[in-house]
Amino acid sequence: MITETPTTTNDGLHVAIIMDGNGRWANKRNLPRSAGHHAGIRSLRDTVEAAVQRPIHTLTLYAFSSDNWQRPQSEVRTLMRILAAQLPAQAANCVRQNIRLSVIGRRDRLPEPVIQALIRAEARTMHGTSLHLRFALDYSARDSLSRAAQHVGNNGNGDFLHALMRAYNADCPVPDVDLLIRTGGEQRLSDFLLWECAYAELYFTPDYWPDFNGMKLDDALDVFEKRQRRFGTIPV
Ligand code: IPE
Ligand code: IPE
Ligand code: MG
What we know:
Layout: E1 13-18, H1 22-28, H2 33-53, E2 56-65, H3 73-97, E3 99-104, H4 112-125, E4 131-139, H5 141-155, H6 160-167, E5 179-182, E6 201-204, H7 214-226
Parallel strand pairs: 1-2, 1-5, 2-4, 3-4, 5-6
Helix pairs in contact: 1-2, 2-3, 2-7, 3-4, 5-6
The protein binds 3-methylbut-3-enyl trihydrogen diphosphate (IPE) (2 copies) and magnesium ion.
């Protein structure tokens, strides 16, 4: 259900992170890729804890893309198990830190334990106001955009943004992304928030996700502060 309630009472930024490089982090240590996914949990906790203390109102984290279903079944199973276990753990942390947790993406293909965990996590944290933490699961920006376009076309409904929110199950409106961070060294968007990143500042770091933390988030915020955003205009 979409509410018109603002996400948080805080002013600040919408930061989005493509949490990439878990597999390579593990490979470098001769560990299975799953070890990288497990190691990434610590980075997640530390980054969220830091984000609450920073001028950030929304943090959207890419946890599983719709194209990630094409990975070997064993890896998908590991990731789904981690999600089913981590959503309750994260929800408990969120309650403690007054964070609202929600999930964007398709819900019709996720395993039942993940669905149940995300519904419970959202319900437990829906009144959080310090930060809106959004996990993108089974998320594809292109798929969301094309489904939103179909919906608007069929209904003669001009409210495209509303249709887009519905297409990826957003529970309330969120401003566009200000800062997009990608770990792991790749410099691409991999079908993440294509619409919402129209004027996002992009920050790519070679650090693998398990090596990311609150201090690295501060490095990205420092770089962001020095960027001049023009939105198509001429600086005065
Ligand atoms: C990101 O790390 C986690 C997910 C995509 C679920 P990767 O698993 O993509 O790690 P690399 O990019 O192969 O190192
Ligand atoms: C993007 O990483 C998806 C997530 C981090 C969840 P990928 O590893 O799937 O992206 P590509 O394949 O390198 O573009
Ligand atoms: Mg990757």
